[in-house]
Amino acid sequence: MPVPKRKNSKSRRDKRHANKGMDVKTVAVCQTCQAPVSSHQVCKQCGYYKGQKVLRTKTDRMHERTQTRQADVAKREAIQTKGTAESEKSDKKADKK
Ligand SMILES: [Zn+2]
């Protein structure tokens, strides 16, 4: 039975263990946007997995936000163009209070 002549220092031992966890990971390509993706994972660029939308990405949320803002602006403009009739009513209500 081989017996070590001297004790390995902590430094030598830790250097040996430092490479234990290293692993080369395979990189796949997203089918929808061709971005590099780790295999069996949802694409973080477009939120698709196996051709189905799974995640709401940051760009999706930005797009929804701009749409709601545009809708709000359109509503405000519609209210302003309706005329002064409604504004007069609100003025009367304010006078009653
Ligand atoms: Zn993608």
Number of strands: 4
Bound molecules: zinc ion
Strand order of the largest sheet: 1-2
Number of helices: 3
Helix-residue proportion: 40-55%
Order of helices and strands: HEEEEHH
| Poorly predicted spans | none
What is the total domain count?
Answer: 1
Measured between the Cα atoms of the first and last residue, the distance is: 100 Å
Explain the overall architecture.
The chain is mostly helical and 97 residues long. It has one domain. The protein has a two-stranded antiparallel ribbon. The protein has a two-stranded antiparallel ribbon with strand order 3-4. Strand 1 and strand 2 form a beta hairpin. The structure holds zinc ion. Zinc ion binds next to loops.
